[in-house]
Amino acid sequence: MSQISQMKVSDEVAIEINQMNKWYGSFHVLRDIDLTVNRGERIVICGPSGSGKSTLIRCINALEEHQKGTITVDGTLLSSDLKNIDTIRSEVGMCFQHFNLFPHLTILENCTLAPIWVRKTPKKEAEEIAMHFLEKVKIPEQADKYPGQLSGGQQQRVAIARSLCMKPRIMLFDEPTSALDPEMIAEVLDTMIELAEEGMTMLCVTHEMGFARKVANRVIFMDAGQIVEQNEPEQFFENPQSDRTKLFLSQIL
Ligand code: ADP
Ligand code: MG
User: Fold this and answer.
1) pLDDT the model gives residue 1
2) Low-confidence ranges of the chain (pLDDT < 70)
3) For 185-215, how does the pLDDT look when each residue is reduced to its tens digit (9 = 90+)?
4) What pLDDT is stored for residue 9 in this prediction?
5) Ligand 1 centre and the CA of 55: distance in Å?
6) Is residue 48 within 8 Å of residue 223, measured between CB atoms?
7) pLDDT of residue 57
8) Protein residue with least CA distance to atom 24, ligand 1
9) What was the ipTM of the complex prediction?
10) Other CB atoms closer than 10 Å to residue 130's CB: what's the count?
11) Coil, helix or strand for 92?
12) Pairing of strands 13-24, 68-73
């Protein structure tokens, strides 16, 4: 097993977040977030439930609006301008805890829908691309089935393949394994490890600390809407600095 966590990252910036704040009504959910992600980085975000991890991830591809500060993705400033939002969404793939596949479409159709309708890719070409990525996540034989006929782990791998069909430069994962039975977690993590080995820029909200140690070049700990601490995995786990990080790690490790 190669040490992915030691893999080099480029000095080109993929995501730049400056003094970003977000409120849900009067609730101040994200506070003064500063985060620079370079191309090829593999970042794991952890922290207690309710600390704002999902909100942060969702702000990066404009599923949620932020109210203060800036977010720049691949050089595009994320503003309320719809054109920019489309640009960013086409660069950024996302996988959620619940796979959000369309139940009435086959696996292949789930994977070709956005390329055909958003990217205007010809159907045949979109199908070839979809089969390529279904092979990559090791379920090409499921292409004509419906999501309900697949296991949770298989559905999540379809969700990853579906994102990859849009050829994203950045992948965001929000607890992709936390709705899965234990025996299916490894197959999804293996797919994510392969993506990391290929140099994909990844931000992963996960409590899979084995994955964090093996794959991440940086672990970020969030609490109460703030980035409390971040470090390379070894330092993060062996020598956490803040009491909040220590408490969190003592609860999950
Ligand atoms: P995490 O992913 O770390 O568990 P979230 O980003 O989901 O945290 O939520 C952070 C806080 O914001 C929580 O207190 C949650 O209840 C609240 N929250 C999340 N989504 C909404 C929403 N759409 N409206 C109001 N409050 C929300
Ligand atoms: Mg969450």
Assistant:
1) 46
2) 1-2
3) 999 999 999 999 999 999 999 999 999 999 9
4) 87
5) 6
6) yes
7) 97
8) 24
9) 0.98
10) 27
11) strand
12) antiparallel
CB 108 within 8 A of CB 119: no
Q: How much is the pLDDT for 83?
A: 78
Which pLDDT does position 226 carry in this prediction? 98
Phi, psi of 219, rounded to the nearest 5 degrees: -115, 130
* pLDDT of res. 2: 55
Write out the two tokens for 16.
């730049």
The amino acid at 7: M
List % helix, strand, coil for the chain (3-state, nearest 5): 40, 25, 35
Q: Is the CB of 192 inside a 6 Å radius of any atom of ligand 1?
A: no
The closest alpha carbon to 55, from 19, 98, 22, 89, belongs to: 22
- Which amino acid is it at 248? F
Q: Which two tokens stand for residue 138?
A: 């090791």
Write down the H helix ranges in the chain: 53-60, 82-91, 107-117, 123-136, 152-164, 182-197, 209-215, 233-238, 243-252
For the sheet with 218-223, list strands across it. Answer: 92-95, 170-174, 201-205, 42-46, 218-223, 226-231
Ligand 1 atom having least distance to the Cα of 52: 6
How far, in Å, CA of 148 to CA of 221, rounded? 35
| Top mutation candidate among 26, 44, 55 for ligand 1, by most atoms within 8 Å of CB | 55
Torsion of CA 191, 232, 179, 151, to 10 degrees: 10
Indicate the residue type of 104.
Answer: H
In sequence order, what are the beta bridge partners of 205? 45, 174
- In angstroms, the CA 190 to CA 176 distance is 12
The token pair that represents 161 in the structure block? 């393949």
How many Cβ atoms sit within 10 Å of the Cβ of residue 134?
Answer: 23
